[in-house]
Design goal:
By secondary structure, the protein is of the alpha/beta class. It has 6 helices and 8 strands; from the N terminus they run E-E-E-H-E-H-H-E-E-H-E-H-E-H. Helix 1 packs across helix 6 and helix 4 packs across helix 6. The mean pLDDT is 94.
Length: 201
């Protein structure tokens, strides 16, 4: 399953199973793509290595339309104020309408078709294991491996976020693993791959 972005890049779903792992919601957080591509065992795991290839190509957080994909999901709180989220509010623009983006629609289609029982998204830079929905126990297991604290809230408003869409509103256990961006990426391979191994069938 794949989709072509506005700039002609390809978003791919690889593997099959009950756990979905997504890299690069934000183009300025490329760690997930690297870590997934270094792993690529697919026994019971599904991967979207890079959800936002246009953002990577453009060297920015948002996609080619200037939309923060992690504010574009059709949640009950989509479109609420995101001005507290950071220094540049445009980096957190939720789109002209909920679910407007090709990338967002691709993830929604994957969830509807394959019905994952656990979803992990790889972000940076906060060094926390954030969770939404019934995922506290899973978050604690991940925390034991990577030694980041478990947090139920990231600490600022996230209307239209994927965690709200999948975890809160659909009750799919959803982990947002915020990686340490100051850590050399090679040093993250072992702990992150151990986390992936937890969910192999």
């Amino acid at each position: 399953m794949n989709r072509t972005t506005k700039l002609g890049n390809k978003i791919e779903l690889i593997g099959e199973g009950k756990t979905l792992i997504i890299g690069v919601f934000h183009g300025d957080e490329p760690q997930g793509k690297f870590l997934i591509e270094k792993y690529m065992k697919t026994n019971g795991l599904m991967f979207i290595p890079c959800l936002n290839p246009d953002g990577i190509q453009l060297g920015r957080r948002t996609n080619a339309n200037g939309v923060d994909l992690n504010r574009n999901f059709p949640t009950k709180n989509w479109g609420e104020d995101t001005s507290l989220a950071g220094d540049n509010p445009s980096d957190y623009f939720g789109g002209a309408s909920a679910g407007s983006e090709i990338e967002t629609q691709f993830v929604i289609d994957v969830i509807e078709k394959y019905k994952p029982e656990l979803i992990i998204t790889l972000h940076a830079p906060y060094k926390v294991v954030n969770y939404d929905g019934p995922a506290r126990e899973i978050a604690e297991k991940i925390s034991e491996i990577i030694k980041y604290p478990v947090e139920a809230s990231i600490g600022y408003p996230t209307p239209g976020s994927f965690g709200t869409y999948a975890g809160v509103e659909r009750q799919i256990p959803t982990i947002t693993l915020e990686l340490d961006e100051t850590c050399p990426i090679e040093n993250l391979i072992e702990p992150v791959h151990k986390i992936f191994d937890l969910f192999l069938c």
